[in-house]
Structure formats: C-alpha cells, structure tokens
Amino acid sequence: MMQQTIKKILHDPVIGRELRVSGWVRTRRDSGSLSFVEINDGSCLANLQVIVDSGLENFSAEIKKLTTGCGVEVGGTLVASPAKGQEVELQAKKITVLGPADPAAYPLQKKRHSFEFLRSISHLRPRTNALGAVGRLRSALSLAIHQFFADHGFFQVHTPIITTSDCEGAGEMFTVTTLDSGQFDGPDPFARDFFGRRAGLTVSGQLQAEVYAMALGRVYTFGPTFRAENSNTSRHLAEFWMVEPEMAFCDLSCNMEVAESLIRTVIRQILDSCSDDLNLFDRFVAKGLVNKLETACAQPFVRLTYTEAIDILLEAQGKEGREFEVPVFWGMDMQAEHERFLCEEVARRPVIVTNYPKEIKPFYMRLDEGEKTVAAMDILVPGIGELVGGSQREERYDILLARMEEAGLDVDEYSWYLDLRRYGSVVHSGFGLGFERLVQFVTGMANIRDVIPFPRTPGSAPC
Ligand code: 4AD
Ligand code: MG
Question: Looking at the structure, do residues 156 and 93 belong to the same domain, yes or no?
Fold first, then answer.
C-alpha cells in the first residue's frame, strides 16, 4: 500500500493516528532535548513538522546529523501542535534515514536561490518551493484542459511528432535524419534517408488534427512541438507543449468562444483547487497575481480587429513619450511590446485580436471578404502577449489551392490536405494555445524556462 501523502494528512488530520510518512528534510532545528524536523514529500507546498525526542535510539548518531535534502521515513503519532505555524505535528517513534545529502556539497540550502542559478541545476530545482509549485500547477492545468475538452464532447487525437509537413510554413522545422554528415552530398540526399524524403519534428499538430475533425467533429491534440527559431526571449522555447483543438461546423466567432471559455474555465479551476501554490507566487513572484487571475476569469475578454488594434497603437505612438521599439504600421506583425501595450495598458485584461492581414499569416487561414485579411484570432494576455493563435480554416478548395501556390508550397505534398476540401468540405476552425505561456500567465513566472521541467533553447539542452 502506498503511504499517505502529507497533503492528505494535513487536509484531513486524525489526531492520535499512527502514521508512516516519507519525505525530504527541508530544515532541522534543535530546542532543548527535542529536534524539530520539517519534511516535505512534494504532494503539497506545506511541510509536516516532525518532533523527535532525544530518547530516540539514533538521535545523536543520525537525527542530529539530518540536513536539508536528506530522504527519511518517519513512523509516529499525529498530535495537535501546541505551537503556532501548524495545526498538527508528528511525534516520531522511529526515523529511518533513507538517503543522506552532504551539506558541504548539496547545492540547495535553506535560502532563496535565483531562478537563473536553479536553471543550472535542472535535476535538483523541482525540490525548491517555487519550482515544485510550478510542477504541481502544470499538472493541474493539464488535467483541467483535458477535463474541459471531455466535458464538451471532444476526442483527443495523438498527432505525429515526426512529420513531413511544415504547418506554419515558417521554415522552423528541426530535421530528423539518420544520414551521417558525409552523406549530404548530391541533389536530394533525403531520398536516401530513413523516410525516403525530408522529415522533421512537428511545429504543430493542426493539419493532422484537421483530418480527424473532418471525421470525429470535435478533436484536440496536446503534445510537444518543436521550433528551430533562434529567439532567446523569456517566452520562446525550442520545445514546447501546445493544446490544439480543431472543430468542424465552427466559425471564427465560435472558435473565439471556445478559446475564451477554455482559458477562463481552467483558470477558475486552478484558483479553486491550487490556492496554496498560487498564493506562494502571489507573495514572492508576482504581487497581485490572484487578483489578475480573478479578473481574467470574471470579465469577458476585450475583442478588437487587427485594424482597430493598429489604430489604437498608432494613436498611442509618440504620445506622452510613448515610443515603441518597432514602429507601428498597418500590415506589420505585432511585436510583444505592442501586444502587451494593448492588454496591459489599454484593456487591462486579455484581448482577442481578429482579422489580421493575410500576408503575415499562414496559408490555411480563411480569406475574408475584401481579400486583404484572414479570419485569424490571437489572444493576448497581460505580462506575456500572445497566448493563443488560431483561425477559421479555408474550406474552399480553389481559394486554398491559390493560397498554397502563393505561399510557394509543393501542392503535391499537401494533396491529402486538399482532399479534405475535395470531399465533404465544411466550415471548421481551431487554435493553438502555448501551454508554457499559460503556465507563465497562471504563475506569474517571468521566464518561460522556469515553467517547463527541462527547457530547450538555442545553445542549451542539459539532461
Ligand atoms: O501561433 P502559432 O504559431 O500557431 C500555430 O502553430 C497554429 N498551427 C495553431 C493552431 O491553430 N492549431 O502557435 C500557437 C501558440 C502561440 O500563440 C504561443 O502561445 C505558442 O503556441 N508558441 C510558443 N510557445 C513557446 N515557445 C515558442 N517558440 C512558441 N511558438 C508558439
Ligand atoms: Mg502565432
């Protein structure tokens, strides 16, 4: 039988119960003939206080030598705590040291370490309060997302990780090859490669999700995606997780409703179920976080067309010394500074921007009337900028074909995608939500490298 977790013990304490608990020592202090050992098992932020009497047989040989990081198993009785700080504590009858942690070498000591330092020890950092809380929140968010889709009749589709189609057409695909460096000579080396053609790691599961949306109606994929983009920013990773629903019989406005409802629902759930971890971030990482999250799920998101957004930015540009690093003009790809201005200073909450110029968006987005813009939607959130990118898809065969040719795609390679428009084509939409950006929004963590267990960025992929 698995032992009870500290979370369960603290949530549902039964005074007088005999317990066996295992965890890692956070701190130890001695007072008179007693030793107070705080242990944490990762199940929650809180520690369990263990009281050890000097009468215990291994008291001086082992207990007095316990330091931060040691693994221990404690058997004892749960008692009401006479002191402030905790309701209950465990009166130890037996403590077994499972694994020591030499204090002279163990890098995590009882003090605050910078997130930058912690990145250099990614194999140990989940043992800290903040990174442990990120780990629990990530898991809770993932579960809430799956639950949302299950509640709304979606099926999860496992789209491929290795693919031959570059969904975003941005040339950011990592190549997957078994060729050695000497074998790349000649006109088409990939013809001799494992798949007989060039293959890569997926940048998005969208195109394959569309295949299943055209059969199962409402689907989503939630998996790792890879981008070989050389951006060293606090919101880009080379490997990140993306949530991508794809829905038949759903237009742009339906798409926005689903995206907004997903975000507000999962945040509400996290506010209700993870308050201890959230309060930690509110206190130590991002003051006002809980308020910001309450606002995000209480009020509807602001909606602007791209043209309206550009007008607002143009009007702001130059006013009261407001300068953007990249000057604003209609047709530009908005930068994080513009996106953040719109939601942090204009709307003061999440904003959905729609109908972007077709030139700055991929071939699959549905062309609007007037043919200047496409039925795209991005959701921008305070502190981050773009959290979601999506669109109504081009379901008209001739227009899609023309857009693909314009984009310079090899139409033969995408004939399967065109077939979806040849046979039973219907209105459909979908979006991609960057999971790490959602975790950033929910935790207030400034750097995306601190919300994924093992970040991959240009020049860096330890363990
Ligand atoms: O806007 P993007 O590129 O859209 C797509 O890939 C579509 N095919 C999605 C779809 O419609 N099914 O990416 C979607 C989201 C972005 O809004 C952002 O949150 C996140 O993915 N994202 C990244 N997150 C971390 N690091 C990166 N390098 C990211 N690139 C995009
Ligand atoms: Mg985008």
Answer: no
The 10s digit of each residue's pLDDT in 95-138 is 999 999 999 999 998 788 999 999 999 999 999 999 999 999 99
Between CA 367 and CA 371 the distance in angstroms is 6
| Pair 180, 88 in one domain | no
Q: pLDDT, tens digit, for every residue of 128-181? A: 999 999 999 999 999 999 999 999 999 999 999 999 998 888 889 999 999 998
**Strands of 199-201's sheet in order across:** 162-163, 199-201, 175-176
Task: From residue 200, give the alpha-carbon distance in Å to each of 157, 313, 462.
Answer: 19, 38, 21
Helix (H) or strand (E) run with residue 89 in it: strand 88-99
Q: Please check whether residue 429 lies inside any domain of the structure.
A: yes
39 within some domain:
yes
The total of other beta-carbon atoms located within 10 Å of residue 435's CB is: 23
Residues 6+ apart with CB under 8 A from 19: 4, 9, 75, 76, 77, 78, 90
pTM exceeds cut of 0.70: yes
Q: Indicate the top mutation candidate among 437, 440, 460 to test ligand 1's pocket, ranked by most ligand atoms within 8 A of CB.
A: 437
Q: 201 is in which domain, residue-wise?
A: 125-450
- Distance of CA 434 from the midpoint of ligand 1 (Å): 6
Are 286 and 382 part of one and the same domain?
yes
Distance 132 CA to ligand 2 centre (A): 29
Write down the H helix ranges in 90-198: 115-119, 129-151
What does the block give as tokens for 318?
């130059």
Domain harbouring 317, CATH code? 3.30.930.10
Q: Which helix (H) or strand (E) holds 290?
A: helix 289-298
Kind and range of the H or E element at 275? helix 275-284
Instruction: Tell me if 180 is assigned to some domain.
Output: yes
Same domain, 181 and 315: yes
336 Cα to the center of ligand 1, angstroms: 14
- Report the residue count for the chain: 463
Q: Which residues of 165-188 are buried (b: 16+ CB within 10 A; e: fewer)?
A: bbbbbeebbeebbeeeeeeeeeee
Could you tell me if 69 and 106 are in contact, meaning their C-beta atoms sit under 8 angstroms apart? yes
